[in-house]
Amino acid sequence: MMAIKSILTAFLAAASLGLPGIPLLSPAALMPGRESARDSAGAGCPGASQSLDVTMPSAALGKPVAVRLYLPPCQPNAGRCFAAIYLLHGAGADQTQWGDIGIATAADDGRAHGTLPPLILVVPLRPDDRADPRPDGDLPYEHFIVAELIPWVDQHTSACSAGTQRAIGGISRGGLWALEIAFHHPELFVAVGGHSPATQGEGGLNPFGLLASNPAAIRALHVWLDVGDQDSLKSGGASLAAVLQADGVSTAFNQWPGGHNRAYWREHVPDYLTFYASQFSSDLCQP
What is d(CA 78, CA 128) in angstroms, rounded to the nearest whole number? Predict the structure, then answer.
């Protein structure tokens, strides 16, 4: 994995792609034989995830955005790729929040025990940005995710490019952002998770309104919602779960002991990863 890090560091220092300043990571070096079939051999990928911090310029946001990547300590087999999960932090936090609650450790433990496949985890910072939709209907941060970050990750890491191998989730306000993005662009994801999520959206976009406007497409998603029994947001999460289930959307809802804090999320990070990984297409995998 250190060799991969050296390749990444060299390209980060020396190259750019598309928007000025976006680092170029060699597909030939990082993704030998990469196609669309997911590699699921978790136990065959021992070791610790490699953390990589990059800074991406964003035309959608008009400012650079810090992104933390957690990469498996191995490469996919020829003709295979890794599923990717986009994880959004809560308000007042940053791209280090998911690392602080143990996302890399949970991914490593699951992979070592064969309960999780190798996963690419993408944790972008949400900078302060406008809440008004763009002319295309996207919120600015949403457009950064779907039109800039996802294409970049697909092209320059070992991530599968199919939506059936991609999920998005978030904590608190990040859970709302994840739900809004997935409900507005359900073709890009197979699953979405809201972990202690806020449920009232920004700029007129919210999960309830998006469900009402695009129910058939959203029914293709698998949704996870969880909240602590001492969390002031628990009624909103329960209401959203009930509406989704009544509308035929595959929705798991859990209310566990705890509050709205990192101790609660840290305890359930393995549950989150298990949910996301269970939704990725297995018919594309070969033993």
Answer: 41
Give the number of domains in the chain: 1
pLDDT of 119 strictly over 60 = yes
Q: Is residue 25 very low, low, confident or very high in pLDDT (cuts 50, 70, 90)?
A: very low
Asked if the model's pLDDT at residue 186 lies above 90, the reply is yes
pLDDT at 132: 74
Q: How many CA atoms lie within 13 A of 262 on its CB side?
A: 13
- Domain presence at residue 191: yes
Backbone angles phi, psi at 34, to 5 degrees: -65, 125
Is 51 part of any domain?
A: yes
Asked if residue 157 has pLDDT above 80, the reply is yes
How much is the pTM?
0.86
Any domain includes 133 = no
Residue 219 is part of which domain span?
A: 41-127+138-279
- Max CA separation in the chain (angstroms): 52
Rounded average pLDDT over 174-182: 96
CA distance 11 to 104: 24
